[in-house]
Write a structure and sequence with these properties.
Two copies of one chain form a homodimer.
Chain A lengths: L1 E9 L3 H13 L8 E6 L4 H7 L5 H10 L2 E6 L10 H8 L4 E7 L11 E7 L9 E6 L2 E11 H24 L10 E6 L7 H13 L8 E6 H10 L6 E4 L1 H14 L9 E4 L2 E4 L18 H13 L3 H17 L13 H11 L1
Parallel strand pairs in A: 1-2, 1-3, 3-12, 5-10, 8-9, 8-10
Antiparallel strand pairs in A: 4-5, 4-11, 6-7, 11-12
Helix pairs in contact in A: 1-9, 1-11, 5-6, 7-8, 9-10, 10-11
The structure holds 3-isopropylmalic acid (2 copies).
One 3-isopropylmalic acid (IPM) sits at the interface of chains B and A.
Pfam families (chains A, B): Iso_dh
GO molecular function, one term (chains A, B): magnesium ion binding
Pathway (chains A, B): Amino-acid biosynthesis; L-lysine biosynthesis via AAA pathway; L-alpha-aminoadipate from 2-oxoglutarate: step 4/5
């Protein structure tokens, strides 16, 4: 099988980590029978400055027409009046699920082992960006729409349930690694305040997860503020957390803090038959150009993309190589307390592939 | 001076901790020349079941006409189709600031010392609760309004700046306790996605904090997801964090996790000349009726209420008594790993007053 992958480095350290992701794909063992071809695509702030748009049509068209998947780096966001291309891309390609696994390995666990995944709705909520501002005698008043649909809430909850089952199968195949004996999905919302929008999310999630196929899944719920509290007090308790877009955004950064560095946390933007791997970290202007950005989040995002393209064996090989690197703790970038460069970490992971 | 205080225990453990708060006020040293009178007021789920409303007019009227301040316990929230009375109360009394200090004491610090305060806007954002649901061929679609006004953003940022200055004065009077030499306010928002609403909050906060009186305050900003990450990675760095309503809600539960228990974290809902002390924890049905709820959050909320009623000396006495209790670590409730009852903790704090 040959997969065509779009490469969208974006800005800042996105340009340092995406090439590492490409190297990983090129170096997969030939026994996997997987080939890759690549196409370089533009997006981000520099693209915006050059062309007047942060997300050129050509990027979207090429992804739609030619590609099976893509890797997205990061874009600078601290600039006013310019709209984030990743948010637009998620909507244009209907990549409705943002999947963010957060786990410790034997080597980087400071406390109890964490192995959870945040499944974030990726197309609506406040991210519809429908805003307006009016002038009143008392100053400006701005409003934004938070939109929650039954349709989007159902499909995100359904995929959350499927991910919970898949994780359970993986655990069953490798007994002893985890002590969890029942898959669990935690529905996150704020329906005590937002009875209609978050109420609809909650109710629809309950319905989706009540399906026969999920009968082995334990379903519970948490109000978002309490979810953040519990995430920090007993992270080892959680398995799959499903949340509307904005809560998912916040929760995944919070979970990343638990495992030591945003530089470790991958994500995949997943639609039907398409996936974009994207490290959770940003463009990190403070360390840009020094060659010390952590490539692990991107490398794991490569694996996650492959998982959602159905290539489980390739994904497993990459995860194992990353775990090997982290457990050995010999080549770690500065965000992990080490002194290694991006290149050294990459080489170490390649060696373990 | 005699202050008249409304007591609104609400539901669950609210009924166990509010009486403790009353005892503290009654037991303040007479040298402070402060007297208190009390009025018992109803609100919450049981009130809703009994009277059909969670917040009777009588409660609001009495607070408005007779009281200088109030203590609010907690209300059950896990019930659909019933609207939270504290949210309504904040709006009806225009208690525009929700102030939530989070700090470690020598005795309960596990890592670096934390001493920060979250200043949460308390009247608008998604808490305006303007929602609607429409039926479409593709299922239900619900929308909620997130409203951000220049007016509310300005006054919350202004009070955040004032709190930063006040904290600096307290530090200056007790040198050695903290190593911070400049007050700081961190503006939290998500203007990279919500350019108009959160953009207005950010811009207005910048303007409010650029006032001459705040020239000694260092002002910085964080995107909310990154704020949660940083809060967990380097909490000791933060002083005053100002945020729109929902982010403030989430951040304060997150910060509470850092100091070990929600049972320690107080809040005050502050308006011009009025303040309601409110522990950050909920009604905790799991431990209700066992007499083991932690009264510290309420006792600190009493002090915080007094601070905003201008009674700094009384507040300082209460804080010191609480710190004494925590540092001695002899009488701690189970949430803190101890075995003491609510009553024993209360008596220990009273002894130290
Ligand atoms: C850059 C920003 C628009 C984005 C988001 O909020 O989705 C980022 O925080 C993320 O989590 O991918
Ligand atoms: C009970 C709930 C409505 C409330 C809120 O969201 O404000 C609570 O979480 C709080 O923080 O006081």
């Amino acid at each position: 099988r040959t997969l065509r992958i779009g490469l969208i480095p974006g800005d800042g350290i996105g340009r340092e980590v995406i090439p590492a992701g490409r190297r990983i794909l090129e170096s997969l063992p030939s026994s996997l029978n997987l080939k890759f071809s690549f196409v370089d695509l533009e997006a981000g702030y520099e693209t915006f400055q050059k062309t007047g748009t942060a997300l050129p049509d050509k990027t979207v068209d090429t992804l739609k027409k030619e590609c099976d998947g893509a890797l997205f780096g990061a874009v600078s966001t601290k600039v006013a009046g310019y709209s984030s291309p990743i948010v637009a891309l998620r909507k244009k390609l209907d990549l409705y699920a943002n999947v963010r696994p957060v786990k410790t390995t034997a080597g980087n666990s400071t406390g109890k082992p964490i192995d959870l995944v945040i499944v974030r709705e990726n197309t609506e909520d406040l991210y519809v960006k429908e805003e307006r501002t009016i002038d009143t005698p008392n100053g400006k008043v701005a409003e934004a729409i938070k939109r929650i649909s039954e349709h989007a809430s159902f499909r995100i909850s359904n995929i959350a349930g499927e991910i919970a089952l898949r994780r359970q199968n993986i655990r069953a195949a490798a007994p002893g690694i985890s002590t969890r004996d029942q898959p669990m999905v935690t529905i996150t919302h704020k329906s005590n305040v937002l009875s209609q929008t978050d109420g609809l999310f909650r109710e629809t999630a309950r319905r989706a997860l009540a399906a026969e196929k999920f009968s082995s899944v334990y379903v519970e719920e948490q109000i978002v503020d309490s979810m953040v509290y519990k995430l920090f007090r007993q992270p080892e308790f959680y398995d799959v957390i499903v949340a509307p877009n904005l809560y998912g955004d916040i929760l995944s950064d919070g979970a990343a803090a638990l495992v030591g560095s945003l530089g470790l946390v991958p994500s995949a933007n997943v639609g039907d038959g398409f996936a974009i791997g994207e490290p959770c970290h940003g463009s990190a202007p403070d360390i840009e150009g020094q060659g010390i950005s952590n490539p692990i989040a991107t490398i794991r995002s490569v694996a996650l993309m492959l998982e959602f393209l159905g290539e489980m064996d390739a994904a497993a090989k990459i995860y194992a190589a990353v775990d090997g690197n982290l457990d050995a703790a010999q080549f770690l970038t500065p965000d992990m307390g080490g002194k290694a460069t991006t290149q050294q970490v990459l080489e170490d992971v390649l060696k373990r592939l």
